[in-house]
Specification:
Elements: E1 2-5, E2 10-13, H1 33-40, H2 42-59, H3 62-76, H4 84-93, H5 103-106
Antiparallel strand pairs: 1-2
Length: 113
Amino acid sequence: FYYHNPETGKFEVHPWDLDLTFANNMYGDGNHDFKLKVAQNPAFNTDYQNRVREIIDLLFNRDEGYRLVDETVKFVWTPGEPSLVGADRRQWDNHPRLNHKDRYYDISRTREF
């Protein structure tokens, strides 16, 4: 979700879920009103594309990307301990609207976190 930080005056993107934070292929099509409005404004779109390129170049490469994932995993999951990952999994696995236990993990190649 998008958060307007009053201290910096800037918007920040915050992950809101543990299993679909960076995926757009399970539910919905990945289009969001905010993103669409930015894309329609040429000045904003240029700034947006430049910023996305900068983030991808700096963070989403093998070295930095894997390091960030490892740091996040240490925060949310410790083998054999209660964790946010387990709580999130139980919430969605048992959600009545899904009608099927472990649906998300059925489509996961490794069937695990």
